[in-house]
């Protein structure tokens, strides 16, 4: 029975006494000696027993009252008219079943049912790795409702591809190609379609085409795919052992260094994607080693940004500057060591290098492909003659040339 339902129970013999174990859940009303109407008040269960004139038991049953889902089904159909979702009572649980197009719709239906049923909920947090501790992403928090089981199936999970280019360029590079962030928005990152007609691909192509370490160099080009609502990470580098002592006991901790990237992404609707990027570039600094253990320190450049993009859009994150000073002394052997006069034979050179880290990211919605559609690169063995003459021969020509060279032209 559902809450609010009533049911008539017909008896074979006349009833004298009716017993209901939980009258607040199920109550009854005698219509006549052989007819009893029971009606459900709220969710739960109650034992229903009827006794005859001689005290004999003539009826015994367990009445289970479930939540009436009729109104909720009507509301669900009104808010999600394109989805076919079924609701079923299983004990004290409500089970959702059906098929939807995306995971985002699945979560929205689940939240709707949980809120309408006024079920208690707890937050399931999504974390991304930070430097010392994990960081929470509020916009990716999912609600879990007690008493609601989500068995809705998704036809195809939405997947997001994030392609990044991490480059280190000279401090004047961005000005040389005509991009001035402070003049546009006063912030380190901005959409590339506002950057004076430059695209993300243009910036990367310029760095690659120049191929000069004095101008810039590509550090890494990670390409990560992640299911909507999940996280991914990328690391190219190593781990630095750091020894600490607590109560004369040595403890070794490993700290990652190199090029590291943490990504979290979620599809908001058909055209908008929200992405959180935490890029980090670190290197060993041997000039600042610890005195006792000679462990180098780390030079680190790190950023965190959350942006909202459309499918296929790119953005540039910049402004991560670093400056290095170096000084070298060049002197004439022996003469440069003469007190006072040695300065005339000594040349001191100071150099200051300023570099900027730029990160170009492009976001695309992707879908898996079948194995038959995958085309792998192949290598074909080339003969010595082809390499010398720089020609491509057919298989038939290779076979004939092979016979000639094997027999020295004689058969």
UniProtKB/TrEMBL annotation:
Question: Where in this chain does the record put each Type II/III secretion system secretin-like domain?
Answer: 211-366
GO CC terms of this entry? type II protein secretion system complex
Q: Which residues form the Pilus formation protein N-terminal domain?
A: 1-66
Which Pfam family is an annotated match for this chain, by its short name? T2SS-T3SS_pil_N
**InterPro entries given in the database record:** Bact_Secretion_Sys_Channel (IPR050810), GspD/PilQ (IPR001775), T2SS-T3SS_pil_N (IPR032789), T2SS/T3SS_dom (IPR004846)
Q: Name one GO biological process term.
A: protein secretion
- Give the top-rank taxon of the lineage listed in the UniProt record for this protein: Bacteria
Describe the family membership recorded for this protein in Swiss-Prot or TrEMBL: Belongs to the bacterial secretin family.
**Which protein is depicted?**
Type II/IV secretion system secretin RcpA/CpaC associated with Flp pilus assembly
């Amino acid at each position: 029975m559902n809450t609010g339902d009533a049911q008539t129970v017909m008896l074979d013999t006349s009833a004298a006494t009716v017993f209901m174990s939980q009258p607040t859940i199920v109550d009854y009303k005698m219509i006549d000696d052989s007819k009893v109407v029971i009606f459900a008040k709220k969710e739960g269960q109650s034992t229903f027993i009827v006794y005859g004139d001689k005290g004999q038991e003539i009826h015994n049953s367990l009445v289970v009252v479930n939540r009436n889902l009729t109104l909720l089904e009507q509301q669900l159909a009104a808010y999600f008219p394109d989805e076919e979702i079924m609701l079923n009572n299983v004990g004290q649980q409500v089970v959702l079943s059906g098929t939807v197009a995306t995971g985002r719709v699945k979560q929205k239906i689940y939240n709707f049912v949980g809120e309408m049923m006024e079920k208690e909920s707890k937050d399931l947090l999504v974390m991304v790795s930070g430097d010392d501790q994990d960081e929470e992403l509020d916009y990716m928090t999912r609600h879990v409702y007690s008493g609601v089981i989500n068995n809705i199936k998704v036809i195809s999970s939405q997947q997001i591809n994030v392609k990044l280019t991490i480059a280190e360029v000279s401090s004047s590079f961005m000005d040389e190609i005509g991009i001035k962030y402070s003049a546009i928005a006063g912030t380190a990152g901005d959409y590339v379609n506002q950057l004076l007609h430059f695209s993300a691909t243009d910036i990367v192509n310029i760095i690659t085409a120049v191929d000069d370490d004095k101008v810039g160099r590509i550090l890494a080009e990670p390409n990560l795919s992640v299911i909507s609502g999940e996280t991914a990470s990328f690391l190219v580098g190593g781990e630095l052992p750091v020894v600490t002592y607590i109560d004369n006991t040595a403890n070794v901790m490993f700290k990652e260094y190199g090029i590291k990237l943490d990504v979290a992404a979620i599809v908001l609707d058909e055209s908008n994607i929200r992405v959180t990027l935490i890029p980090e570039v670190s290197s060993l600094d041997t000039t600042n080693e610890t005195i006792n253990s000679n462990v180098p320190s780390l030079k680190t450049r790190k950023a965190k940004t959350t942006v909202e993009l459309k499918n296929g859009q790119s953005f540039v994150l910049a402004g991560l500057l670093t400056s290095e000073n170096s000084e070298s002394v060049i002197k004439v052997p022996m003469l440069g060591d003469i007190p006072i006069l040695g300065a005339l034979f000594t040349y001191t050179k100071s150099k200051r290098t300023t570099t900027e880290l730029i990160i170009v990211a492009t976001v695309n919605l992707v879908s898996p492909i079948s194995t038959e559609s995958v085309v792998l690169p192949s290598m074909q063995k080339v003969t010595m003659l082809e390499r010398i003459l720089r020609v491509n021969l057919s298989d038939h020509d290779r076979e004939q040339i092979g016979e000639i060279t094997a027999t020295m032209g004689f058969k």
